[in-house]
Amino acid sequence: MPTTRRQFLNLAGGVTVAGTVPIVTLRPLQATPAMLNAAIRNLVGEAQLRNGRIRLDIPPLVENGNTVPMTVSVANPMTADDYVKSIHVFNEKNPQPNIGNFYLGPSSGRAQVSTRIRLADTQKVVAIARLSDDTFWQVAADVVVTLAACTEEMN
Amino acid sequence: MAALINVPSKAKRGEIIEIRTLTSHIMETGFRHTADGKLVPRDIITSFICRYNGAEVFRADLFPAIAANPYLSFFTVAKESGKFEFEWIGDNGYSSTASASITVE
């Protein structure tokens, strides 16, 4: 059967439309709360996440997100059979949800770690402690950032 | 690479001491672009280890969200005289070490 003009135009039009459908799969520039939750689930698994015991010291308002001082401490003894195994810090809106993992042991004496971090936006920072009995304790802090870090242009 | 280490030179046996370390590193996040739109490749320190007379007492995994020139402070119990060894490992085969000694009375 010879192709009619109408069929031909329909077909051509269809191809053009299909050809211009943008096939874009962009990675989000910011870690979404879903990514934060996924990162936390990845660490905690099915275990219960409790509030308390852990303390996060971070300024509530920072001018420069490129270097934000942060101290995490856990109110827990550091003895051979009851100690803090690790401390994990996450963020909500940087391009990646992880900030740092810190591994301690009974010989640490005190469960406290300080470092300087980058924050790309005003957001929530979450710290989680894992104790030797595999219980997890969390704390969150909100930080307002006026100058963002991580994704700015290089000069 | 230059590193600044702060370990007390003397401590009493059983005392909890603070160790502070600072090393120079760009910690390029891998999320930044140059003015003409090219992605700047990631170049960060990914892990830090502290050993006290050969035994690991502290370890950290670092991510791009750690600020340039990573600063870390942590604690340990002074058990015996000896040496603290510090190691930073990163992208592109980066490796750097430092050490400090302590006298425990």
Give a short summary of the structure:
Chain A: InterPro entries: SoxY (IPR032711), SoxY_para_1 (IPR030997), SoxY_sf (IPR038162), Sulphur_oxidation_SoxY (IPR016568), TAT_signal (IPR006311). The complex is a heterodimer of chains A (155) and B (105). With 155 residues, chain A is an alpha+beta fold.
The biggest sheet of chain A, with number of strands, parallel, antiparallel or mixed sense and barrel status, is: 6 strands, mixed
Overall structural class of chain B, as computed from helix and strand content, comes to mainly beta
DSSP helical segment count of chain B: 0
Principal-axes geometry of chain A comes out as elongated
CATH class placement of chain B: Mainly Beta
CATH architecture of chain B: Sandwich
Radius of gyration of chain A: 24 Å
Provide the CATH superfamily of chain A: SoxY domain
Relevant CATH superfamily of chain B: Immunoglobulins
CATH topology of chain A: Immunoglobulin-like
Indicate the radius of gyration of chain B in whole angstroms: 16 Å
Shape of chain B: elongated
Number of helices of chain A: 2
- What is the string of helix and strand elements of chain A? HHEEEEEEEEE
